[in-house]
Amino acid sequence: MTKQHSKQSKEDAVHYYESHKELGAKGCANNLDIGQSTLTKRLKEFRDNEEIVVRGSGNYSSDEQKEITSLKSELKDTQDALDVLKKL
User: In this entry, which stretches build a coiled coil (predicted)?
Assistant: First the structure.
């Protein structure tokens, strides 16, 4: 992943983690080019202050919210791929 990930907002990091939980905190942190402790701190801060709306264990409050998060993640991945291609 690019250095651009290290500049993304706390909310983006949280949403990336929520969309890629199968990677775990360590895998997500590596993909975001941040430390695992930084990611877990962002997750805690966001949950304490911003209240990610979820039901159960990692389920979004609605199917629409889940789809929005998924589409944001897909858009970010596509933008990252485009940035890489532009550098070639």
Answer: 61-88
